[in-house]
Design a protein that fits this description.
Blueprint (H helix, E strand, L loop, with lengths): L17 H20 L11 E6 L5 H13 L2 E6 L12 H10 L4 E6 L4 H11 L5 E7 L5 H14 L6 E7 L5 H10 L5 E6 L8 H4 L6 E3 L10 E5 L10 H10 L4 H6 L5 E3 L10 H4 L6 H6 L1 H14 L14 E9 H11 L4 H4 L5 E7 L4 H10 L9 E8 L5 E8 L5 H10 L4 E6 L2 E8 L3 E3 L20 E4 L4 E4 L5 E3 H4 L1
Parallel strand pairs: 1-2, 1-3, 3-4, 5-6, 5-8, 6-7, 8-9
Antiparallel strand pairs: 10-15, 11-13, 11-14, 12-13, 14-15, 16-17, 17-18, 18-19
Helix pairs in contact: 1-5, 1-12, 2-12, 3-4, 5-6, 5-12
The structure holds N-carbamoyl-L-aspartate.
The site of N-carbamoyl-L-aspartate has 12 residues, from helix 2 and helix 6.
Length: 496
């Protein structure tokens, strides 16, 4: 079989390219179907070991992994339940991962309530020199990528195509991680219409809605009538704080009644990652269009294929070395007189703001409302020790690019690491240093991923739950920041 160098870990659908997902992974899953149907074991390799670490409940994800491991003939150890490992004694995720790899785990399959744990563990193990892959079996409300791969296989089997259909999601779209992963995967396809049925309490996050510009929403299950596929998601009551009345109302709303079934397309494919609670009452469960048992079964060939892919690629290094992420560049270095003359000639509005100081730093091009946060940051970091006022000019109208803020620090110069910290969250910022009659403008080449600055506002994120997890953000084109680990997106000023 063709070797796939690039797929070692399965951490999030958004980490996989369209090509990896649809051209490499899915065909390999399809190849495994007949082996599983006939229960044909693979060539036995008892030196290989898969470690399950499931601190949240599971029936299907765990059961299908165990079945896959059995058919692959490798060793398996299971840590199951929130109280079963030393995590319950407050041992860190980092230390847990290192220990399990030390005991020869080749693949760690992890399900946790804390978000971003699988990605954190995969990165940490690679940096610590272990050849151990990680599969995300569901991290809190974030992602469940292996479920999505089996959902895609189910769609191929029962719908016969992965493009050009209408899919309706109902239930808990806010916390349903399988919904988040599946939407991400479907955003790679063409002609997919998405219909959402949710309520105020269970709304899908904006970042997933934005994947489908023509998405439509409703709070009535009748909106599903024209769908080719219907995908249900259990109300994740363990993640909400619902009173019994609200919970009962939501449960009643998200029930597939016989009347609803009658109104759906005769060939609709009805899916659900399970467990379901009230979604399919016993009288509708027998309807042939509800293919959830076969969907769950698809987990076995999928997990065989994924485990094999990881075994083949254990030596791959997928996380780039730590390196200084930001490079500061001096883009102008002129005499102050020359600079002022130039500004006056240009007739630029900014000139007046540079005149007040002959010595100090002007932080320019600060996004609106961020200036006061930077000021606060500088005070807390003890950067403003010299005499001289700190001056914030907010909302200057710029001629071409909207509004900005400017921070003037008389007689103050910032250390490079502080400049980098500011730039890491506000890449547009420039530092104009005025000293001894010279003017120096400093800017940064900033990569989209920045480490070691800011704080993820998501309390369930690994960065707020493990001392070795370093905050890392991705700059989104929209001006917001996305946490590298828990994948939640935030407006910039919430993450500083
Ligand atoms: C789901 C999960 O754990 O995210 N189930 C699964 O893995 N098949 C859905 C749920 O718990 O409701």
């Amino acid at each position: 079989m063709e070797k796939c160098e690039s797929v070692k870990n399965i951490l999030s659908i958004s980490d996989l390219s369209c090509e990896q997902l649809f051209k490499i992974i899915l065909p390999k899953c399809e190849e495994e179907i007949s082996f599983v149907e006939k229960r044909i074991p693979h060539e036995n390799d008892p030196t290989k070991k898969v470690q399950l670490l499931f601190t949240e409940p599971s029936t299907r994800t765990r059961g299908s992994n165990i079945e896959a491991i059995g058919l692959l003939g490798c060793r398996c150890d299971q840590i199951v339940g929130a109280e079963a490992s030393a995590l319950a004694k407050k041992e860190s995720f980092a230390n847990t991962a290192r220990m399990l790899a030390k005991f020869n785990a080749d693949i760690l399959v992890a399900r946790t309530k804390t978000e971003g744990v699988p990605k954190f563990m995969a990165e940490l193990l690679e940096k610590n020199g272990y050849q151990c892959a990680v599969h995300n079996a569901g991290d809190g409300t974030n992602q469940h990528p292996t479920q999505t791969i089996l959902d895609l296989l189910t769609l191929k089997r029962h719908l016969g195509r992965l493009d050009n259909f209408t899919i309706g999601f109902f239930g808990d779209l806010k916390y349903g991680r399988t919904v988040h992963s599946l939407l991400t995967a479907l955003s790679y396809r063409s002609d997919i219409n998405v219909v959402l049925v949710d309520t105020q309490e269970t709304k899908l996050q904006k970042q997933y809605k934005e994947l489908f510009p023509a998405i439509t929403g409703s709070d009535e299950m009748e909106a599903l009538v024209d769908c080719d596929v219907v995908y249900g998601a259990r109300i994740q009551e363990e993640r909400f704080d619902f009173d019994p009345v609200t919970l009962a109302r939501l449960r009643a709303k998200f029930t597939v009644t016989p009347q609803l079934l009658n109104s759906l397309k005769s060939n609709v494919v009805i899916m659900h990652p399970m467990p379901y609670v009230q979604e399919f009452p016993p009288d509708v469960r027998r309807d042939k269009r509800i293919i959830i048992d076969d969907q769950a079964w698809c987990g076995v060939p999928v997990r065989i294929a994924l485990l094999k892919l990881s075994f083949e690629n254990l030596e791959a290094r997928v996380f780039p070395e730590d390196r200084p992420e930001i490079v500061l560049d001096t883009v102008e270095n002129v005499s102050l007189a020359e600079y002022r003359l130039h500004k006056v000639r240009k007739g630029g509005e900014e000139k007046q703001y540079f005149y007040p100081i002959d010595c100090g730093t002007v932080i320019d091009h600060i996004p609106v409302s961020i200036g006061s946060k930077i000021k606060q940051f500088l005070f807390t970091k003890g950067q403003l020790k010299n005499e001289g006022p700190v001056h914030l000019i907010d909302r200057i109208k710029k001629m071409q690019h909207g509004e900005k803020e400017v921070l003037i620090l008389r007689n103050n110069f910032l250390e490079d690491r502080v400049k980098m910290a500011i730039i890491s969250l506000s890449p547009t910022v420039t530092f104009n240093e005025i000293l001894n009659g010279r003017f120096r403008k400093i800017k940064a080449n900033i990569p989209s991923k920045v480490r070691g600055f800011g704080k993820c506002p998501n309390a369930a994120c690994i960065t707020n739950n493990d001392p070795e997890a370093v905050q890392t953000f991705i700059h989104m084109g929209t001006g917001s920041l996305k946490c590298w680990y828990c994948e939640k997106e935030f407006p910039k000023d919430e993450a500083i």
